[in-house]
Structures are given as structure tokens and as C-alpha cells.
Amino acid sequence: MKSQISPSTSVFVGKACNLPNSRRHGQIRFPLGAVDCRSAIRWRRYTARATFSSASVNELGLTEVRSPSLSSLYRPAEIPKPNSTVLEAQGKVCTGPKQTRPLNEDQAYKVLDTILRSARGELQDEEEVSKAQLGAYFAAMAIRANAFPEATQWSEGERRVMNAFWPHLVQVLPPDIIFLADPEGTIMASSNSIGPRFVGKDSREMRLVGALREVLAGGHLGYEEVQGVLRDVLPLRSDGRDLTAVSESLFSAFLIGQRMNGETDRELKGYCLAFDDELGPPPMADVRSLTHYGEPYDGNTRFFRSTLFVAAVRASYGESCLLHGVDWMPPKGGITEEQMLKFMGANTSLSILQAKQLLEDEGVGFVYISQREGRPSLYSLVGLREHIKKRPPLATSEKVQQYLRATGKEAIVTGFYHEGYESPLLMLMRRRGVHSGLVVKGEEGALSMTTKIRSGIAKGLPVNHCSGFRCLNAGSAYDVDGISRESFTMEVSAKDYGFESTETPRTDRSVSKNIELGLAALKGKKGPAYDRIVLNAGMVDHLLGCEGAEDVLAAMDRAREAIDSGRALKRLLNYIRLSHNV
């Protein structure tokens, strides 16, 4: 597909906008149709205002875009806030058999007293305990009692407080919560028949309740069982108007319970593939290679997030990139690619077919797809995910999505933090049938490698640990899909490739600061942000086996040239403009 930008048309129009603290390094000019710099982007203000050109106003019906500068301000206002007392307890008990921290007697009393007063409608100056919170908390208590090792089962204090409160709670809690707390009538001192007899209100809840009986006992489900539950329940309606909707309490218990038990490969595949055909078969983009970037959807809260800028670099020499994510996601609620693109004036509501056009455009070559547009059923869970506190299985599987396919080679890159998820992520990539896959233990669990030299002995796998597979031109051992692959594992030391050890720039939830660092780097300003973009572009090219990246130092030089020539910045500016024209 030919570029939509004619060779005679300049991509830079209007007056220049200076980057803060970067006057010595020139000026950034935003393209027509994205941001009118005469209205000024106020990088250090509470909000950014990006005024569209007259043509864009007429076309889109917009007059002004206001985007918050802090990631926490992107939280949708319509989502009810969870109860903070119970949410804090969920952070301790709604986790794995080794990570759970039992509550002491005072903590347990505060939690159950809050739940009882909320159920009675007696809470004042505090949010009610939501159905999702009740489901997650009581499911966690049941799993701990039934299946966890002694060290993370109920403490003596939790047991005493529960024995005192349960006779009162059972009088005011709905049947689905009583079922979750004591599914077989064997956990509570004063047992009752509600749990053993509970079946749900319709066929969908019956399937969910049947699955929950296995999960609450510490067991696992099959691929078809997981997919059946997800397709029954989603998209989630949380406005209370749909009387046929499945109980949020039960579904929250299902999500947090599966995470606490540790998902099997079959369960993760169920989550990963359940909604592949939600909008029909994925379109095929006519590109010679395509890398799907799966950053953690809940973003960065501390360090510079570089992947958007890396994608612009790699696209400038023909390595097409697809980024996907959300505007805001718990539990971290950090900086995401969607926030940065929205702040800069790009269209962040592209359909999958519109994304395909931009990916094929010779002047762009990369694209961002919001989960809101690509997997609306999964996006309907954002509010519920805040109320269950801990990450559900979807936090792993959503990073390995294929919103588009390519006529050429495909690769997936994603990040991880917690041990135990490296192999499952690679398994999901192989299940997707891609030619190459890479998982990176980056900073904050993201996929960005750092130039900082590791000091001391790391707990678990070190930052910059990489593991993956790539296709071979020849070989004797073939996978079931007919692609011959080799596996690799390594720890990337940036010093080995000529980088100085530097601290990663901090952004501390500031979207504008993250953009400032990235744009300054794409303008050629040398420093930690520039080095991280070069390292992550060149190293990913090399590890995925991309054409022209057999020599890792040559791959780094190619990334530097893409930045220093201005081609990478031009790609980003083209994207901002053309995202409104597809």
C-alpha cells in the first residue's frame, strides 16, 4: 500500500513547540490534523490541550482534546470505588500459596466488621463493600482453608474472628456469598445447607457454580470448561439493569480463585483464545514481518516506558509493529501507550480494519489497538478487576493476542515479573503459531530492557533476563505447524554492547514526562532514554532473528541511524496525523 503522504508534502506544519529543558536540541513540530502547536502543549500543567486543525474539527466533530498528565487521572469516573479496608485485606489474602499473608486478629476483625456493617447498610464515610470484593475475599478464604499449606491457611486470629462473626454474616449475606465462603458446609464452625445446595439462578450460573466447586477446593479446569464460563458471562454488565446477568460475586471468585491455584497451561489457553473470533476472523495485513508487543496492560508507575518509541524506530526500517493495551487498568493504573498517544493527539479508537490500513502504510508501519475496540468483552472487566485487587489470569493471556495477522513472518514480545510465567507465555506464543517469540523480565515487569548494570544478587531471575524461540532457515526438528524453531535463554548485559550503565529515567506516573523523554530521544538527544530505545530495538531485532540483525552491533547501529536521521520521529508524527484519516 502506498503511503498516504505524498513526497512533496511536509509532515511538519505550524509553529514549533519546544520540549521542556530541551531547547538546545531543537524543536518538535506536530503534524497537521493532530495537534495545533499554536494552542500550546503545556507539558508541565495538570492537563494537556491539543487543538485540532479546522479540517479535523469538521471531519471528526471535535473542537478540543483534553488529556490528563498523570496516569491515575485516566481512571474511568463511572467505575464505583472499592472499599479500601477490604481491598487492603484482599492484597494480603487473594494471592498464591507462598505469597499469602494471613491476617492477625485485629485486621480480621476490622475486615469482617466492615463487611457486616456494609451488608446492613450501616457504613458511613466509606464505600460499600462491592459484590466483586465479597466474591474475591470469601473465595480466597475458602481456598486457603481447603488447599493451602499450613503457613498460609487461616491464622488463629482469623479463625476466632470468623467464628464470632459468621452467625451474624449468614443472616445478611446473599446465598451466592454464603456458597463461596463455605461451598460444602465444612469450613465454618456453624455450618448450614446453603453452600452444598446452591446451584445458581440459571444455566449459565449453574455452569459457573460447577466450575467454582472445583476451583474452591484447589482444583483445576479443562480448556473447554474455562472457555465455556467466559463466553457465558462476558461481556459483563455492571449497571444492575440486566437481571439475567451472572453474579459478579461468583465471577470474581472464579477469576481470583484460578489465579490463586496457579493456572495450568490448559486454563491459560482457554483465557487466551476465548474471544479470538469475537469480531470475526482477524484481518491479514500485507507486511513482510509483524511484531506483536504485549506490554502489561496496567502500565508503568515508576520508570520510562519506551515501547511506543521503539516501535516507531523499528517501523522506520521495515519491521512492522502492533501495540495493544488499554487507557487505564488496575491494579497499578500506570502509564500506558494509549495514554501517551491520546495526550499527543492521536486517535486511540481505531477499529481493527483501520489499524490494518495504518500498518500497511509505507509512511507509518506501526499501530496501536485498544482492547476496548479489539476485545470489548474483555474490556468490560476493567471495573471488576479493580475490585478483585490482584491480577486475574487475563493479565497474562491478554498480552499474547493477535488482533491482526500478517502475510509475512510474525513474532510476539512480552514482559513478565513473577516466576512461573515465563514458560506459559512462551507456550501461548507457540500456540499462536508465530515464527518467533520473546519474553523479557524488564523493569516493573514490562518488556523493556535496561542499560543499568545489575548490582548484587537478584532475587529470582534478574532484570534483562530473556527467553524465547526463533525460526530457522533449515533444521531437522519441526514443530507441529511446520515451522522449525530454536530456543534460547540469556541475560542481556548492555555493557557488552557499548552502553554505559545509567539509571532508568523516572516518570512517576507522569504521562507528559514519559512523552518528553521519548520525543527528545527520537530527536537525537543522547542519554538514558535514547540508549534504552536503541538497546530494545536492536536487541529485539537480533533475538527474533530479523533480517539484517544477525550481527547485534549492526542491529544497534541501524536503530541509531533510524533515530539520528529523523526517520523514526517522522513515523510517530505520521501516525498521529494519519490515525484521524483512515
UniProtKB/TrEMBL annotation:
<dbReference type="GO" id="GO:0003921">
    <property type="term" value="F:GMP synthase activity"/>
</dbReference>
<dbReference type="InterPro" id="IPR035902">
    <property type="entry name" value="Nuc_phospho_transferase"/>
</dbReference>
<dbReference type="GO" id="GO:0005829">
    <property type="term" value="C:cytosol"/>
</dbReference>
<protein>
    <recommendedName>
        <fullName>Anthranilate phosphoribosyltransferase</fullName>
    </recommendedName>
</protein>
<keyword id="KW-0328">Glycosyltransferase</keyword>
<dbReference type="InterPro" id="IPR036320">
    <property type="entry name" value="Glycosyl_Trfase_fam3_N_dom_sf"/>
</dbReference>
<keyword id="KW-0808">Transferase</keyword>
<dbReference type="GO" id="GO:0016757">
    <property type="term" value="F:glycosyltransferase activity"/>
</dbReference>
